[in-house]
Amino acid sequence: MLLPKERVTAHDVHYTKTFRRRFISSMSDDIAHMVVCSPFFDKLPAPFNDLLGFCSFLNRRGTDSINIITRPPGADPQAMKLDVARRLAAQGVRIFIRASPYLHAKVYHFEYRKGYYRTFIGSSNFTVGGFERNHEVVSEVEGVGVGSACHREIARMEELGGAQTFEAWIVNGQPKGELGEI
Question: In whole angstroms, what is the distance from residue 54 CA to residue 73 CA?
Answer without folding.
Answer: 18
